[in-house]
Prior knowledge:
The protein has 98 residues and is mainly α. It has helices spanning 3-26, 31-53, 69-91; strands spanning 60-61, 66-67.
Amino acid sequence: xxxxxxxxxxxxxxxxxxxxxxxxxxxxxxxxxxxxxxxxxxxxxxxxxxxxxxxxxxxxxxxxxxxxxxxxxxxxxxxxxxxxxxxxxxxxxxxxxx
Length: 98
């Protein structure tokens, strides 16, 4: 499995566990609890990937540019999360504060 694929798989697992298992039980439809929980989830993914690639100068292909492990993990996490987040917000009627 390529490095990119393993990071995408990790991000997918973290996101799906969060939005399908953890957030419904701990955050419900509270925007601030979801936000805090998601910061912890994305930090977990970054920590796991950083543990493996911190000292390496490996580049990751992000379709149009090559980036380091941090940016690849963060950007891919956000891109994978957006559709799941929108679905969760609609399903649980999460209101975004103004």
